[in-house]
């Protein structure tokens, strides 16, 4: 075998597993694997997971913080206006360079698949051109999936409909939308219908920014679920944000959750961004503004957490660390039972991979040898510590390494070092 990881702890609770890799694939996962590897890595006591997956990001805007100015109100709407000021100033080279820099961060954090929305409301389609090139360049180490996103409204922005089609023709692979930003509720619903029909005709997935609003009457998710069923798109449609669900009447929400389950609608919550953007017009009590993750998970919906933004017009922080995203989702959603914490880890790994439709993802024979070795013993400890990504492996090759974090101590009668794990590795 080409590479063997010895003594891995897996996210499903199995311990002391050897992972054998030949070429680009995992060929064995078992205790005490008899084979020898051209290279062997001792990972005893460390969690080895399939890589992190970000189901919702904006790579065309990332690392543009401060260009051409900062968001003073901190609201979604000023962010959209600010991005509108920056758009005419974009160049293919600058967008690509910032995106590639972000991909470097992502790889270092074990984040090896990203679904990025790309704004198609610029008639030059600068961001589309740049991100298609970035997608091609990063393919050996990161899966970049692009969504044609009409940021200024599919019906509201002149030319958006034609530009969205052009972006799909150029190779953008998912249909986006933003019904709550259309001029009226009726136009929002029309946009959902038209966009789902485009996806059905072309055999594409759908991922809409949907009801990213504090308005409890923003109910486009209902239309999204209904159109999913009408067009037979079950399981291929994602509602991103869905923050209005946080403000909805409980009776209506219970009916809506059933409809979403019937449509097998996927959900992406973006906890870092929505805890800062939502509830801005509230005094007190102030709404948290994340969608009803606990209830969606309980209905069996596939729910992922997305990063959404890193250092852009909407959010000035972030580093590509999906464990930071999971940790915020856990807090905002009060997902504190052991099962719920484990579900938060799946929200940035397995569930996100399912939403993207990634091929051969996982830690099992036959899967791609895409893995991250964490300085933590299990998923709960990973979220608690957001630890070093000791080794990041893509298609059987180690592509990033970070030394373990340990503190040196000078305390009488105590060990000389500590690494913050509850049970340090042997
Ligand atoms: Zn977004």
- Give a short account of the largest sheet: 8 strands, mixed
* Molecular shape: globular
* Radius of gyration of CA atoms, rounded to a whole number: 22 Å
The number of distinct helices, counting runs of at least 4 residues, comes to 13
Instruction: Identify the bound ligands.
Output: zinc ion
Rounded average pLDDT: 96
Q: Unreliable segments (pLDDT under 50, ≥5 consecutive)?
A: none
Count all strands and give the number. 18
Report the portion of residues in β strands.
Answer: 15-25%
Bin the helical content.
25-40%
**Class by alpha and beta content:** alpha/beta
Distance between the termini: 25 Å
Q: Can you give a write-up of this model?
A:
The protein is of the alpha/beta class. The chain is built from 13 helices and 18 strands. It has helices at residues 76-86, 92-108, 126-138, 160-170, 185-202, 220-230, 250-262, 271-277, 293-298, 322-332, 338-346, 350-356, 379-385, and strands spanning 3-10, 17-22, 25-30, 39-42, 47-49, 52-57, 111-119, 143-149, 174-175, 205-210, 237-241, 266-269, 303-305, 371-374, 389-394, 397-401, 407-408, 417-418. Strands 1, 2, 3, 4, 5, 14, 15 and 16 form an eight-stranded mixed sheet that branches. Strands 6-7-8-9-10-11-12-13 form an eight-stranded parallel sheet. Zinc ion (ZN) binds at residues 56, 58, 117, 209, 308.
